[in-house]
Design goal:
With 556 residues, the chain is of the alpha/beta class. It contains 18 helices and 17 strands. The longest helix has 26 residues. Bound molecules: iron/sulfur cluster.
Length: 556
């Protein structure tokens, strides 16, 4: 912990106070290289002349430490710390975080009555022992850092990100911390004008990645996840585990066998069975399993233990209980939604009236200034009416067999509404899982009021993405002829999607989520799926007070 604090106080806070940890190649390799000392088995090492004990836990000097290897001779003790990498070619023999960590072990040993004036770092890759003397300067720096770490843990305030530090390039938590993004937003939080929209890729995908407005934003997070969601639709299907894969069986035989490490979540629609070993394996890997009715209603989630970031949930509850702060956030998401609806119409409906676009622009401005959530609801309702009155104009050649009069649901009365409802259900599920992963309680929102079983925060976060993801996918499915009349089931109650129709909808949705766009503020390429996470993390920064204004994700 002290090592991390010396490297970056924010890294230490995120890992140890908020309980967020992400593996990188370095951390995985570090654990592997550490496996012998972690095993704690005794016995003399052939590497060293003297040996006393491995993995020794000690308390003293106000801290508790674990010493990888303790060498001793009477009252004199020397801690040995294992590091996975090469010994650096620097005069001090090791970087400061490593020297501080070792010195802290020395202080604990001194507090336990040992004479300890030096330690050793063993670099596994270069098989080299580097002796670190505990001189006055190192001891003083170590004591200062221990005090600062204690104060940081007690203050409940996340330390600010490092400023354009090369350390962030190797930090496994960069995607959680968002150092450059938070710094930029803090700089521009008083200037709403710069919260411009994202550039959608051109039809030939020629949009190129460039730096953000300031040219200082590095992309420290991958543009998309390696792991992808898996959907299993329909009664009679069974999910089993076999070695490092899941097997999906229908009544006719095996359908697919995705690798476990390539699965980010598993969504089961309509009475799909899953075996206990498969469920337990997914829980252990932190992969959520989501259950839906055949019609797409979200029924529940099975996952491992709850996110450890209690602090964020407490801040979320405080924020939701404060009408002013809630309204401040709600105005942003509603204005963002209206702006994105307007953009979608402008880009896809050649006949949209100038008056409709002007009205939507005006309503977005009004949303920014709404004085109460009731008036915001009214503004949102007026914008939805205007938007959906023009929605059918986005249907082109392939969608000419269908029409759209208005938005209706529960149950939808026509095919386009059936697809919209189904896609909104998938989107809210993705946001539910993303918000849980970030540490929020998805049931407590700032705009949608709490109601039993309603994922209010996921619905809040969905507002800006409805037009960008769900509406856009629906229009494309019809216009490209990927969904046809035979993909719907009509009853007296309404219209729903057939199994084939659902598969087409899921496939169009997943394609959209993998689409990479240039982030409007940060200037790097990022998939829609990753954008959901980035926006949720930015919301967490707003709730914690680190940035003032939530920047909705806007397209141009
Ligand atoms: S990304 Fe940079 S600022 Fe953020 S935790 Fe890592 S090292 Fe610290």
């Amino acid at each position: 912990m002290l090592n991390e604090f010396a490297y970056c106080p924010r890294l230490c806070y995120i890992e140890w106070v908020q309980g967020e940890f992400l593996d990188s190649a370095d951390t995985v390799d570090g654990r592997f290289q550490h496996r012998r000392v972690d095993a704690g088995s005794g016995g003399p090492s052939q590497d060293f002349e003297t040996f006393h004990a491995r993995s020794v836990y000690l308390t003293g000097a106000g801290i508790t430490c674990r010493i990888d290897l303790l060498e001793g001779d009477g009252s004199r003790a020397t801690p040995v710390d294992y590091k996975r990498g090469q010994a650096p070619d620097i005069p001090e023999g090791a970087y400061e975080p490593e020297r501080v960590q070792l010195c802290a072990q020395g202080l604990v040993l001194r507090d336990n009555g040992f004479v300890c004036d030096q330690g050793v770092i063993y670099f596994v890759k270069s098989k080299k022992r580097v002796t670190i003397p505990f001189d006055e300067a190192l001891v003083s720096r170590t004591r200062d850092l221990i005090s600062a770490l204690r104060a940081a843990a007690e203050s409940s305030e996340m330390p600010p990100p490092l400023q354009h530090s090369p350390k962030c390039n190797r930090c496994s938590l960069a995607g959680i911390c968002l150092p450059d993004e938070v710094t930029l937003l803090r700089e521009m939080q008083a200037d709403d004008e710069r919260l411009v929209g994202a550039k959608e890729p051109d039809s030939d995908g020629a949009e190129t990645e460039k730096n953000g407005p300031s040219g200082r934003i590095r992309r420290l997070l991958p543009s998309d996840d390696d792991a992808k969601p898996v959907y299993v639709v329909g009664r009679g299907n069974t999910v089993r585990k076999r070695e490092e894969r899941l097997e999906i069986w229908s009544q006719d035989g095996k359908v697919s066998e995705p690798k476990l490490r390539e699965i980010s979540m598993l969504s089961l629609y309509g009475g799909v069975e899953i075996t206990t070993p498969a469920m337990v394996e997914l829980m252990q890997r932190g992969v959520p399993v989501l259950h839906f009715t055949h019609g797409g209603w979200f029924q529940g989630i099975c996952q491992g233990t709850t996110h450890k970031n209690v602090e964020l949930r407490m801040l979320q509850f405080q924020c939701a209980a404060d009408p002013k702060r809630s309204l401040f956030l709600a105005r942003k998401v509603v204005a963002g939604k209206i702006k994105n609806c307007r953009t979608l119409l402008r880009r896809n409906n050649p006949e949209v009236g100038a008056d409709s676009l002007a009205l939507l622009a005006k309503l977005a401005e009004k949303a920014h200034e709404a004085s109460a959530s009731e008036s915001l609801l009214g503004i949102e309702g007026a914008a939805a009416e205007c938007y959906f009155s023009q929605f059918g104009g986005m249907l082109k050649e392939g969608g000419k067999d269908f029409s759209f009069l208005d938005r209706n649901r529960r149950p939808p009365k026509d095919p386009l509404n059936a697809v919209l409802s189904y896609l909104y259900g998938i989107l809210v599920k993705d946001l539910f899982v993303t918000l849980l992963a970030v540490g929020f309680d998805p049931y407590l929102g700032f705009y949608h009021r709490p109601r039993y079983g309603r994922p209010a925060l996921a619905l809040d976060m969905m507002e800006e993405f409805r037009p960008l993801i769900a509406d856009s996918v629906a229009i494309n499915l019809f216009n490209n002829g990927e969904i046809a009349k035979g993909d719907f089931v009509k009853t007296r109650a309404g219209v729903s999607l057939s199994s084939g129709g659902k598969k087409a909808a899921v496939s169009g949705y997943e394609r959209r989520m993998e689409t990479e766009i240039i982030h409007p503020l940060f200037g790097y390429k990022v998939s829609y799926r990753r954008v959901l996470e980035v926006q949720s993390r930015l919301l967490a920064r707003v709730v914690s007070g680190e940035i003032e204004q939530y920047p909705p994700f806007l397209t141009r």
